Structure formats: C-alpha cells, structure tokens
Amino acid sequence: MRLQYPTNVRVIQLPCSGRVDILHLLRSFEDGVDGVYVAGCMEGDCHFLTGNLKARRKVEYVQKVLESLGIEPGRIEMYNMSSAQGPRFAEVAREFTERIKELGPSPVGQAQAA
Amino acid sequence: MIVGDSKPLEEILSMIEGRDKVLVLGCRGCVTVCNVGGEKEVGILASALRISRKKAGLPPTVEEMTLERQCDPEYVEELADVAEKYDAIVSIACGVGPQFVAERFRDVAVFPGINTTFIGGALEHGVWAERCQSCGNCLVHNFGGLCPIARCSKSLMNGPCGGSASGNCEISPEVPCVWDQIVQKMSAMGRLQELEQVWPNKNWLTARDGGPRKRVREDLKQ
Ligand code: SF4
Ligand code: SF4
Questions:
Q1: Helix and strand tally (H, E) in chain B?
Q2: ipTM field
C-alpha cells in the first residue's frame, strides 16, 4: 500500500513506543522542531504490555515541561493506531501537520534563526 | 534513601534569571535511585533550561555534570577546575549538595533544584513513602518493626489516638494509621501484650530538637 503523507513528517522508528525517551523528545524541541508526535499501538495491544501507556505518560510529562516554558503543549501529542491501519497513519500525519501549521513555527527555532 | 521532588521549572528559571553560564549538577546517590537528581534528570532539566534560553534568544549555555556524591568533599572537589566559570550551579542533589558546593566554592551562586522531602523507601516503581525521621534513638523493634515517630501523624508512642478509623489516620483516608498497623502486626505475632507498656515521653535531644547534629567517629577520623 502506497500512502501519501506530508513530506515534512520525519519518521523515527523504534521497536516499541515505550522506548521513546523524555530526553529525546525534549532534545528535538531544543533543536528547534515545530512539533513531535508519538505513534504507538492501540492501548491494550502492546506487545510489551505497557509500552504505549508509558509513552503516553512521557508525552504528558513533556507537555507539562513545554507549558512551564511558555510553549504550546499541543506541539507534542500521542496517537494510538495499529500497524494494520496504514490510512490512519497518513491521516494522523496530515492532522498533526495541520495542527502545527496553525500553531506556527516553534518559538525556539525562530529565536535561533534570528 | 533520601527522597526528593523536582522544584517547579518556573521556580528554577526565576532563580537563575540573568545568569549566563549555568551548570546543572546531579548526584549518583539517593537522588539517582529516587529518579530526581541523577544523570538522566540532569539531562532533562538542562535540556528544558536550554529550550527556555533559546526561546528567549539568550545564549543557551547550560552544561551538565553528575558527581558520584555531593555529600563528600572528595567528590565535590572534582568541580575545582570548572566551578568558577559558571554564574550559577543548580544542584539537584538533596539539600546537602547545594550546601557542600556553596561551602567549597564561596564565590559561585548555588541553587537547589529539588525539594528534599523525607527519608523513606520505594513502595513500588515511582511511589515512595516516609519511613524514618532520624530521631537518633531507634525503637521500631518495640512496635512490630513499624516506626510510630515517622509514620503516625502525631508521632504518638502510645497509640492509637481516638481519630483512628477503619485503619486510616484522621488526617486523611489516604493515610494509613500506623498504630492500627502496629496493633494488627503485634497481634499477628502474638505479642499484643507488649503494647501494654506505657512509654514515657521520648527524649528528643537525640533528634533535631537537640540542635544540629554532628557525629565524630574517632576510629575513622584522620
Ligand atoms: S524510631 Fe527514630 S530512628 Fe527509628 S525509624 Fe523511627 S524515626 Fe527513624
Ligand atoms: S489516627 Fe493513627 S496515625 Fe493518625 S494520629 Fe492517630 S494514631 Fe497517629
């Protein structure tokens, strides 16, 4: 199946969404990205039982950090989808790209460019 | 171990406002074990501070370092060559850390990045509870191994008080009444009669009430 999703989305593959690290999420904002989302398996379907639930909590942690720093917490989000849902993957990529377009460029990246 | 909580990011940001070069200093002791002040948390806090600086268009000079322990001068000494180049050192060790660093490097501004909360242990991953108040004269063996000083809201030696209800303390249904637990435990061990002993007032001079404490071990001193 060949699906179109926005080319600005850079995919970083992990063996399980649970492997995502708070530090890596923060580092990407430090590097000036406009938004990050974590795509994990459906809740209840984690091969490692709770990886996707842990990923969600890490995303929520980073949302709080961003909020404390005066950055829109919506720049990071957790989505759940199964690997059989290719069209859903493309839809989320479009949905999140739209959201970030509305929020505009990251204030971190902007200050750096200035 | 000594358990702590991260200070709110906003508070840390206001502490170091106007200070250009910042060092976030972790400790591999207790605070690493309770996931609040180890190498990993140093990375997270430093990254958050850098994001904030970049956002404000300020130089993002926030560096990271983690000492074996901040409560031992020999490890604090590892900062000797670098301490002076920072305008602020944020220590995320227990309250001993910022003090030892500030005592050793008198011209450097040192800030506490965590709130030291209690001496306790992990009930499960991510959950810690208070177990000891360092009263200086341990008596837990008389109470089935449960400390009434640290775990009873009133530190009663002759409990429970009239507020104990359904196993919980009167201060909150979330707080177990340790005296209820003591009675259950001593009953289960067939030692309930030991609790008939009335304890006189505890001598608090061995606790903090006797003033700041210091231990000198002649056998170890050099
Ligand atoms: S009796 Fe004193 S030393 Fe023993 S656990 Fe309780 S507070 Fe700590
Ligand atoms: S209810 Fe229990 S824990 Fe609470 S103050 Fe009374 S004896 Fe102590």
A1: 7, 7
A2: 0.90
